[in-house]
Amino acid sequence: MAVAGSGSKAGHENWSSRTAFILAAVGSAVGLGNMWRFPAEAGENGGGAFVLFYIFCVLLIGLPVLLAEVLIGRHGQANAPESVRRVARDSNAGEGWSILASLGVFAAFLILSFYCVVGGWVVYYIGIFANDLVQTGLTGGAFAGRPAEDIEGLLPGLFGNAGLMIGLNLGFLAVTMFFVSRGISSGIEWVAVYLMPLFFVLFLGITIYGAFTGNFSDAVSYLFTFDFEKLTGEVMLAAVGQAFFSLSLGVAGMMTYGAYANRDTNLGKTSGIIAGADTGVAILAGLAIFPIVFAAGLSASAGPGLMFASLPVAFQAMPFGSMIGLLFFVMIFFAALTSSVSLLEAPTAYVFEKFNMPRMVATLIVGAGAAVLGVLSSLSFNDMAEFYPLGFIPLFAETNFFDTLDGVTAKLFMPIGAILTCIFVGWIADARLIDDENGLDGILHQTWRALVRFVCPVVLAVIMAFGLFS
Ligand code: PHE
User: Fold this and answer.
1) For 95-137, what is each residue's pLDDT tens digit?
2) Does the Cβ of 34 fall within 6 Å of ligand 1?
3) Residue 95 burial (CB count, 10 A)
4) Is residue 2 part of a domain?
5) pLDDT tens for residues 375-430?
6) Would residue 163 count as lying in a domain?
7) Which end of the chain has less Cβ packing within 10 Å, N or C?
8) What is the CATH number for 259?
9) How far is CA 462 from each of CA 50, 66, 303, 349, rounded to the nearest angstrom?
10) How many Å lie between the centroid of ligand 1 and the Cα of residue 33?
């Protein structure tokens, strides 16, 4: 394990192995984005058209951008803006390109602040199901003998309690800060190596269980029937935004993780594994959630509460429902934590390297900022529900603080960051340096290069224009 100063070119810690890097990066990608945001976005944007366009975005835009980001990090061996600066310097290009990563670091900070709010909801559900397990015993369904409305009312009940929401939000943030303050090997890598395998075991178990008990066919036709009419500019922008959010792109997170990768890691292959695992989990999560949504007569377009309102209803009817519910939310907690540490790591690495301060102090500074914004996001569900910070922009009219941060990062910061990354890697950086890092040969290399140079920036610019102005 490389420790600070012991042989790593940049004097920082590296992942202890390629597997550790893959687990950490998959851990960053797989999170609330897959299980909470993906079904909610799919439901709000009409189902099939959104889902198929989303898959198209992952393959044609997300995957190439992911590789572009990790390779910048690996070459630069530093925090994201510094890595871009080093690639620029080695390519005789202007160091001002580092702005693309600075924007990303800022966006990661914004996302972290509201991500921990949802992380708090997960903790709340863990508490609810643990308590229920004690009450009903091991074999009982969740909330035995209580009406379904009681379950659907759980989240609105939490929203009504601002103090509790803020407490849970800050608690989740504090756990995230604890692991990031410990550094790579005993913090970030530790969570990924222990929690991600556990996540996958639990996830497969619960999905297989769902496949035997649930009704898949409605969900399949909802998620995969392509209705061209529904594919508006806004839906396309939402789908690209979701692809970026889910793959942790456009916010310097993957650059930061790439910087801890060793020279012998094949970045092309690794990017494929990350994107494949992330997309697989999102689709399976959709297939687990929508059958329940339809069966329980819930609205597919319920928005952010969809996962929290729908799944517990199914757990009520299942034998062992209390226990499965508890396991399910514990699993989501693991996935969310491995993502939130990456969101905190990007700004923290920047702050402590730039200002040459201990990691612990940088973690506290960034965490304190995220706490302030987090409180405002928590209040968006109750006391400040009618505060619309960007209400003067049509796309964000009647959008509360929480949804504004979510929308601005996924629909503006992420695509803009990705466009700049593509221009930088495709046109500005020295082609030999890039070829040397990307781990691709022959036709794959040429395809990737064409995607990064032409397809991604153009398609992204067009989608943004349609989504924002149509
Ligand atoms: N990809 C994470 C998820 O799906 C969220 C995330 C976004 C993490 C951006 C890091 C950077 O939950």
Assistant:
1) 999 999 999 999 999 999 999 999 999 999 999 999 999 988 8
2) yes
3) 14
4) no
5) 999 999 999 999 999 999 888 988 999 999 999 999 999 999 999 999 999 999 99
6) yes
7) C
8) 1.20.1740.10
9) 17, 20, 26, 33
10) 6
